Amino acid sequence: MKKTRVYIKESDNLRASIATLFHDIGLEKVSGKKVFVKPNMLRTAQPDENVVTHPEIISETVSFLMEAGADVIVGDNPAPNKRCNELVVAEQCGFLEAAHGCFRNIGRYPRKVKRLGNILKEIYVSREIMDCDVLVSLPKFKSHQLTTMSIAIKNQFGIIPGGLKPYIHALFPKISDFSRVLLEIYNIRPPDLTIVDCINIIDATGKRFTPKKIIGGTNGHAIDYTCALMAGINPYRIPTLAIAKDENLFDPMAIEYHGEIEKIKGYSVPFGFPLRNSIVEFVARILYRIWLSGAPVIDSSLCSRCMSCENVCPKRAIRNQIIDYRKCIKCYCCLEVCPNQAIKTKFRL
């Protein structure tokens, strides 16, 4: 398998590190090209919450591209929210200012894409993604209740309009199927460059860390693998990585590292098992589901009744701060979009 490079750089001089990344992979000549910059804009969030891409990374990336003569568009499709549109979310995240006038609402005119793979036959994708010459992805380094970590591959879920995301979760409630869908969506338009925001981060427990790094490369699997090593976990606990390895889409031995992998001591991710094909792991997952598996619960004392959880739930299982567990598929979209940390995971044991 062809070698793929992953760059781990310090963020102290962010502009220089970003510029070097573009030069390292040969993407510095972007004059006259349409360049789409896709951050993680999950929901309204302040930069210090560490759940969306930090505006400074967006600002420095856009500034570099504009100075290089590129025609830049910045955008993402956040989770559906009846109370605010994409521009309001972008403003509250600090993205409008960081985009230097280049931010666009990309959810209005999606394009149908057909013949995707074994699971998805067609899906709608923001046309700006399909029309760009260069795609730059700026995911946030973070844990995820469903997929263990949400970084390079998962960030591409944002190329589909926000209203379709709950529908995808409802159609594919099993983590194995949903992970294959994520891979098929990623392959619709793989980024030409991914730069991970690993400057200030939080883990699954809410603990804060300051690695002050950015991780860059062209292969999303290699980047996710590297980030898993930094988090101190078995990389194959990330389901998309396990599938990619089993189906020969990715070989960790082909990664060529430029920079030191420093483990983030004490970093925690949600409990889970590698999605592999051994009998031991299969039995372990069954026992986990019976005795240890969790479910989202709402802390009414923290809830502001913004209804973000109700709007995003793919099975309409939430109403008036009550979760109907007969409908809940444990996708944890509600936990992910809650701006008040009012939704937690409660385990059986």
Description:
By secondary structure, this protein is of the alpha/beta class. The chain has two domains: 4-258, Rossmann fold (3-Layer(aba) Sandwich); 293-347, Alpha-Beta Plaits, CATH 3.30.70.20. It has 13 helices and 17 strands. It has helices at 14-24, 55-67, 86-93, 95-98, 127-131, 152-155, 165-171, 175-188, 220-231, 239-246, 279-292, 308-312, 333-337; strands at 4-10, 34-39, 71-74, 110-114, 122-126, 134-138, 143-144, 148-149, 193-198, 201-202, 208-209, 213-217, 255-258, 294-298, 318-319, 322-323, 343-347. It has a seven-stranded mixed beta sheet, with helices on both faces. The protein has a two-stranded antiparallel ribbon with strand order 4-5. It has a two-stranded antiparallel ribbon with strand order 7-8. β7 and β8 (148-149) form a beta hairpin. α1 (14-24) packs across α2 (55-67) and α8 packs across α10. The model has no long low-confidence stretch (mean pLDDT 89). Residues 294-318, 319-348 form the 4Fe-4S ferredoxin-type domain.
What is the number of helices?
A: 13
CATH class of the largest domain: Alpha Beta
First-last Cα distance: 44 Å
SSE topology string: EHEHEHHEEHEEEHHHEEEEHHEHEHEEHE
Strand % is 15-25%
**Percent helix:** 25-40%
- What count of structural domains? 2
The overall average pLDDT, rounded, is 89
Q: How much is the radius of gyration in Å?
A: 19 Å
Number of extended strands: 17
Low-pLDDT parts are none
Shape: globular
Q: Any guess at the CATH architecture of the largest domain? A: 3-Layer(aba) Sandwich
Strand order of the largest sheet: 3-2-6-9-12-1-13
Instruction: Give the structural class.
Output: alpha/beta
The major β-sheet equals:
7 strands, mixed
**CATH structural fold name of the largest domain:** Rossmann fold
CATH homologous superfamily assignment of the largest domain: LarA, N-terminal domain
